[in-house]
Specification:
Blueprint: E1 2-6, H1 10-16, E2 26-31, H2 37-47, E3 51-53, H3 56-62, E4 67-70, H4 77-86, E5 90-94, H5 101-114, E6 118-121, H6 128-136, E7 143-151, H7 155-161, H8 177-193, E8 198-206, E9 209-218, E10 223-229, E11 237-242, E12 245-250, E13 258-263, E14 266-271, H9 281-292, H10 296-320
Parallel strand pairs: 1-2, 1-4, 2-3, 4-5, 5-6, 7-10
Antiparallel strand pairs: 7-11, 8-9, 9-10, 11-12, 12-13, 13-14
Helix pairs in contact: 4-5, 5-10, 8-10
Length: about 325
């Protein structure tokens, strides 16, 4: 695919480190603002990107690319993704897909109408360890309890407490622990279990934003607690309990470093089959394949998964009002 990147923040810098190994992805453009011109130029030189644009409309009209990677702050995802789809470009959007569920539905309808690929960049759904975990679930019997904890004290939380409101803690810009960090847990759980019967969110609110919170998902005979915190730290792991054993995912749910399978308290095996050190590699290999082959069926499957996640977020926020 011929890829244009919009954004120049931390996630873009992180992504660009793997592009040398994405043999079927050509970096044709990076797009930002005039304020970020120096950073854009530096990234262009370092990663051999063909063109730099500081106006999105100009890039869409004149740039040589078929796909746009939307890696701007959360509240801007919808606007830029919609413009790209309207101009006949495939779109890969960073998580969360959109701030509002209705915005997601609008993008989905537009992509389907124009027969374009629309995907969410959510790493865990593509990692080999996650795919292997799904295969191991029957080994632990009937699922009873899942606890997924992604708690990581944010350096930006100190600035927030001092009165500086950055996008990650701004309720008007799609910030908060649910959207920023717990979203990874939601993707993992929905990928394993599908749509829950009930959703309840119990947040810790400071100055109008959830700095941490517990998400309760009811799947009938399986109960789930997803914890996301940016105001405190704890061991980051996911524990999946069945009536014949358990699985412990080591580390954050967006990385899936490895997982252990237990029979009661006995460790049966530790599994790590991820094929590349960086968490974003496998998803972009698959994105390239989907776009190259115009595999709209696979794209729709991933989009339906993202829709369920966005529905969970909507219900969670509604329950917390």
């Amino acid at each position: 695919m011929k890829l244009a990147i919009i954004g120049s923040g931390k996630i873009v810098h992180d992504f660009l480190t793997i592009t040398k190994d994405l043999k079927d992805t050509e970096l044709t453009a990076i797009i930002g603002t005039k304020h970020s011109q120096d950073v854009l130029n530096q990234l262009q030189d370092q990663y051999h990107i063909n063109e730099v644009f500081t106006d999105f409309d100009t890039a869409l009209a004149t740039g040589d690319f078929d796909t746009v990677y939307v890696a701007v702050p959360n509240f801007l995802h919808y606007t830029f993704a919609k413009k790209a789809l309207e101009q006949g470009k495939n779109v890969i959007s960073e998580k969360p897909f959109t701030v509002k569920y209705e915005e997601f539905l609008d993008l989905k309808a537009l992509a389907e109408k124009n027969q374009l690929v629309l995907l969410e960049a959510i790493t865990n759904q593509y990692l080999q360890n996650y795919l292997d975990l799904k295969k191991k679930l029957p080994d632990i019997g009937d699922l009873k309890i899942i606890e997924s904890n992604y708690s990581q004290y944010s350096s930006r939380y100190d600035a927030f407490r001092a009165g500086e409101i950055l996008p990650v803690f701004d309720p008007k810009k799609g910030g908060g622990a649910l959207m920023d960090i717990n979203i990874y847990n939601i993707h993992l759980i929905v990928g394993l279990l599908g749509k829950p019967e009930q959703v309840e969110y119990l947040p810790n609110i400071e100055r109008g934003i959830d700095t941490s919170g517990m998400l309760i998902l009811n799947y009938g005979t399986t109960k789930v607690v997803a914890i996301g915190a940016k105001d405190s730290t704890a061991p980051i792991r996911t524990v999946i309990q069945g009536n014949k054993g358990s699985i412990v995912v080591n580390g954050p749910t967006n990385e899936m470093d490895s997982f252990n399978v237990y029979d009661n308290d006995k460790l049966l095996e530790k599994i790590n089959h991820n094929i590349y050190p960086h968490r974003m590699y496998q998803e972009f290999v698959e994105f390239e394949r989907i776009i190259r082959e115009n595999d709209l069926e696979a794209a729709e499957k991933h989009l339906n998964h993202s829709q369920t996640v966005m529905w969970v977020v909507k219900e969670a926020l509604k329950s917390a009002d």
